[in-house]
UniProtKB/TrEMBL annotation:
Domain of life: Bacteria
Residues that, per the record, bind L-glutamate: R42
Cofactor note: Binds 1 pyridoxal phosphate per subunit.
Protein name: Phosphoserine aminotransferase
Organism: Halospina denitrificans
Domain Aminotransferase class V span(s) in chain numbering: 5-348
Necessary cofactors: pyridoxal 5'-phosphate
EC number(s) stated in the UniProt entry for this protein: 2.6.1.52
GO molecular function: O-phospho-L-serine:2-oxoglutarate aminotransferase activity; pyridoxal phosphate binding
Length: 360
């Protein structure tokens, strides 16, 4: 069996060790004679798996006790709706920063439910930088201030976070959660779809300060009410049990790697190799301001677009998969999340160098 290097933006590569463990436990989990998929979510075995996953995540991210950790369904996109429903009334002010495709989607959904203000945007330069927080036109009475720390499609990332004062800072961290340490106490809420850096699709994490929940507006669907989920330990209904279990295996893998400090160091090394190669080449280019380049998603273009198909074909033949850029931006994109080993980045650079030499 050969494992290819999968550069997909999501659902993304998972650590081989985690998949091997899941394989070994697939038919008979720890001598119980059944798969985790077949267990009652209310049974003692799965409750243990669920609790351990939460405990490991709290330890990895150093999540303070006054934050709820929710294991939900519906993807990050559902949180675009759940967030205003839980934290704001129909006419309440909510502030958003626009740094790319995912911010725009969050803004569009919230605009149906609250008084949205776009307090800063880098749309004018094609999202090549993160607007300087000192210039944001924020409102002191906003219910929250929403940011997207890592724009998965544009490859744009924050390198520091604003001081939001008393306004809770909310972050859609779908594509960079667990890639480096973060001070959770600076945020009111952090959410992320699992399929980039946590586990398989179908699971969504919400980490929210408990004093912010419990006031969901009238008419909020019960499945979107954070307080209901918190009270039921994310088991108001049947949770995505297998995805929760796999996320737990990923958390344990991260702890074995040395935690988020160690991952950050590895991620910085991987990204800096790839960006340096792109910058030194006259054939490949990345448009993002170097200070705001994502460590997780590296978009790049070829000097001649008509070579794109040949580039992708050659890559696939070498086991370098899913390098095609998002349809909205074109070109290429290499997503190099936690599970992408450094050798995968080396193999990509090696291929890119050879391609340039031959065709450039
Ligand atoms: C992938 C992604 C989403 C959408 O996630 P779904 O789980 O598919 O809803 C939202 N925001 C960001 C930053 C993403 O990368």
């Amino acid at each position: 069996m050969t494992r290819a290097y999968n550069f997909c933006a999501g659902p993304a590569a998972l650590p081989a060790e985690v998949l091997e463990q899941a394989r070994d436990e697939m038919l008979d989990w720890q001598g119980r004679g059944l798969s985790v998929m077949e267990m009652s979510h209310r049974g003692e075995a799965f409750m243990g798996i669920a609790e351990q996953a939460e405990k490991d995540l709290r330890e990895l991210m150093n999540i303070p006790d006054d934050y709820a950790v929710l294991f939900l369904q519906g993807g990050a996109s559902s949180q675009f709706s759940a967030l205003p429903l839980n934290l704001a009334g129909p006419n309440d002010p909510v502030d958003y920063v626009n740094t790319g495709v995912w911010s725009r989607k969050a803004i569009a959904e919230a605009a149906r439910m609250a008084d949205v203000k776009e307090v800063a945007s880098s749309e004018a330069d094609g999202y090549a930088h993160v607007p300087d927080p000192s210039q944001w036109q924020t409102r002191d009475n906003a219910r929250y201030l929403h940011i997207t720390p890592n724009e998965t499609i544009g490859g744009l990332a924050y390198n520091r976070f604003p001081e939001a004062g008393n306004v809770p800072l909310v972050a859609d961290w779908s594509s960079a959660i667990l890639s480096e340490p973060v001070d959770v106490s600076r945020f009111g809420m952090i959410y992320a779809g699992a399929q980039k850096n946590i586990g398989p699709a179908g699971l969504t994490l919400v980490i929210v300060r408990r004093d912010l929940i419990g006031n969901a507006r009238e008419g909020t669907p019960v499945m979107m009410d954070y307080a209901v989920a918190d009270k039921a330990d994310s088991m108001y209904n049947t949770p995505p049990t297998y995805a929760w279990y796999l996320a737990g295996l990923v958390f344990q893998w991260l702890k074995r790697q040395g935690g988020l400090e160690a991952m950050a160091e590895r991620n910085r090394r991987k990204a800096s190799k790839l960006y340096s190669f792109i910058d030194e080449s006259a054939f490949y280019a990345n448009p993002v301001n170097p200070e705001n380049r994502s460590l997780m998603n590296v978009p790049f273009t070829l000097a001649d677009d008509s070579l794109n198909a040949a580039f992708l074909e050659g890559a696939e033949a070498r086991g370098l998969l899913n390098l095609k850029g998002h349809r909205s931006v074109g070109g290429m994109r290499a997503s190099i999340y936690n599970a992408m080993p450094e050798e995968g980045v080396d193999a990509l650079i090696d291929y890119m160098a050879g391609f340039e030499k031959e065709k450039g």
